[in-house]
């Protein structure tokens, strides 16, 4: 209670804002406790009351007052084509602002598949050259929290770990926190016994679908997707894509958007 709250600067590049939408629904811990008691969310385009010059001044103030002490959380990514002109933020290319704020951060969080991998705006042929943030920030630790969006409790869990222990969570080779990304959806999926028994859905409305059999033959990517959906689940632990009847499209994996997660009927 006596520890000063860690300043967090939350920036938005090319994105859809659903990472923020996910974050504000965290139930454990409640997002209000994270924002009002655990961290000092000093800048966030979406959640802050300040606007215009008043808001932009916070960035310089944070760099000067908390040099090396603030966390830079990034939702979305910078487009590099045309000298960054496809995403202008506060009057300058987002890529410039991103690098400038990263210079004095203690660590950077890449929220979601946009910041971590590029995501849909980097889909071929990627005309704006949307680029994952670790390709432009080279000298800071980056924690990748992929997913489109990531699970709310995974996002607040990462922040809780960092402010509680004062260090980064243990990361895998791709920079993801092991505590949430070390297992595949398939490893803990409740439909797994049907996979093992060779019981598969073959049409969306067949008898096997009604019985809740495995969705592997319908294109489920659970066997190759590392995320916590089958354990932590969504909406406070209520459900996740497979439980709602559709296979996993691998939204936390690099390149999922170009690998045919969508289909026509
Ligand atoms: Fe939206 Fe997905 Fe990007 Fe998050 S990762 S901002 S949910 S497109
Ligand atoms: Fe694996 Fe998907 Fe089948 Fe679940 S539904 S057991 S994740 S293939
Ligand atoms: Fe995404 Fe698959 Fe989870 S589509 S939300 S990683 S079940």
Automatic annotation (TrEMBL):
Per UniProt, residues of the Cytochrome-c3 hydrogenase C-terminal domain are 181-262
Q: Which GO terms describe its cellular component?
A: [Ni-Fe] hydrogenase complex; ferredoxin hydrogenase complex; plasma membrane
Any idea which positions bind [4Fe-4S] cluster 2? 186, 189, 214, 220
Occurrences of domain NADH:ubiquinone oxidoreductase-like 20kDa subunit (ranges): 16-161
Q: Which cofactor does it need?
A: [3Fe-4S] cluster; [4Fe-4S] cluster
Query: Where does it localize?
Result: Cell membrane
**Keyword flag Signal:** yes
Q: Which GO terms describe its biological process?
A: anaerobic respiration
**Sequence positions that bind [3Fe-4S] cluster:** 229, 248, 251
Superkingdom to which the source organism belongs? Bacteria
* Reaction it catalyzes: H2 + A = AH2
Which keywords fit this entry according to its UniProt record?
3Fe-4S, 4Fe-4S, Cell membrane, Iron, Iron-sulfur, Membrane, Metal-binding, Oxidoreductase, Signal
Q: What is its EC number?
A: 1.12.99.6
Binding of [4Fe-4S] cluster 1 occurs at 16, 19, 114, 148
Q: Does the keyword Lipid metabolism apply?
A: no
Q: How does it assemble?
A: Heterodimer of a large and a small subunit.
Tell me which family the UniProt entry assigns to this protein.
Belongs to the [NiFe]/[NiFeSe] hydrogenase small subunit family.
Q: What is this protein called?
A: Uptake hydrogenase small subunit
Q: Please report the organism this UniProt entry assigns to the protein.
A: Rhodovastum atsumiense
- Which residues of the complete protein does this chain represent? 48 to 312 of 361
